[in-house]
Design brief:
Layout (H helix, E strand, L loop, with lengths): L2 E6 L10 H13 L7 E5 L14 E8 L5 H19 L6 E8 L5 E2 L2 E2 L4
Parallel strand pairs: 1-2, 3-4
Antiparallel strand pairs: 1-3, 5-6
Helix pairs in contact: 1-2
Subunit structure: Homotrimer.
Protein name: D-dopachrome decarboxylase
Function: Tautomerization of D-dopachrome with decarboxylation to give 5,6-dihydroxyindole (DHI).
Length: 118
């Protein structure tokens, strides 16, 4: 069950229509998880500073069980997420940062229990 959170200083009107759905589909493909399990949040118009600069930027947080736990996995994921983000947001790769968080099944609650028991 991946969670993807995109924070950006870009105003909402500069984001492409359907960006959350595009990120959902891209995440499913990149991480090899069903789209029905992907959760996406997009927050725009934020006051942000990246690398000391307030120029337009974005931060992507990717959390998931079993597929973001190694440097090798995340190197491959990072390249693909950067391709999506630079194309969708019109930002250079130097204005984007991605953070990966491995999760355990007991850290995600769903249907009144945790994923360990589903």
């Amino acid at each position: 069950m991946p969670f993807v959170e995109l924070d950006t200083s870009l105003p909402a009107e500069r984001l492409p229509p359907g960006l959350a759905q595009t990120l959902c589909a891209a995440t499913a493909e990149i991480l090899g998880k069903p789209a029905e399990r992907v959760n996406v949040t997009v927050r725009s118009g934020l006051a942000m500073v990246l690398s000391g600069s307030a120029e337009p930027c974005a931060q992507l947080a990717v959390s998931s069980i079993g597929v973001v736990g190694t440097a090798e996995q995340n190197k491959a994921h990072s390249a693909r997420f950067f391709d999506v983000l630079t194309a969708q947001l019109g930002l250079g790769p130097e204005r984007i940062v991605i953070r990966f968080y491995p999760l355990e099944p007991w850290q995600i609650g769903k249907n009144r229990t945790v994923m360990t028991f589903l």
